[in-house]
Design brief:
about 140 residues, alpha+beta, Aminopeptidase, five-stranded mixed beta sheet, 4 helices, about 35% helix
Length: about 140
């Protein structure tokens, strides 16, 4: 079952998000987790969270937001984070979460969904290449001093 993240999911969500950060080798701490959890549950904030629940626990999460696409004068959905507990991979949970976002794109009148992944994330890219178009753009990030 796919549903929005609820307050009761915090502990399980934290474990999954720590797994996500570990996969991408990004340091994680309680402050970051608290900030993101607060954003997800703040109605005035733009980050939303959905989860895939199986056997009364969440085994997959996705964070997304509405994003303007200036060149088209439209909004799109942006998938920020997607993670499925390793033990539950291979059950099409990631694809189901993305398909749910696709249905949300219709509900929100978005022009589509975008996301990025690391070039080394081969398993995810196999799925993404089947269900979406690789735009060919490369991501750059300028850090503040």
């Amino acid at each position: 079952m796919i549903r929005f993240l609820d307050q009761k999911d915090k502990e399980n969500w934290s474990k999954l998000y720590n797994g996500y950060a570990e996969f991408y080798k990004v340091p994680m701490n309680k402050e970051i987790l608290e900030t993101l959890w607060g954003w997800i549950h703040d109605d005035s904030h733009i980050i939303n969270g959905i989860c895939y629940e199986l056997e009364d626990r969440i085994v997959g999460i996705a964070h997304y937001r509405t994003m303007p696409r200036p060149i088209k004068g439209k909004y799109i959905g942006f998938l920020d984070d997607l993670f499925v507990e390793p033990h539950f991979r291979g059950q099409k949970i990631a694809q189901k979460l993305i398909n749910h976002l696709k249905s949300l794109s219709k509900d929100n009148n978005w022009d589509g969904i975008r996301w990025i992944t690391h070039f080394s994330n081969g398993n995810a890219k196999k799925l993404y290449d089947k269900i979406a178009n690789n735009t060919g753009f490369e991501l750059y990030e300028l850090k503040r001093d």
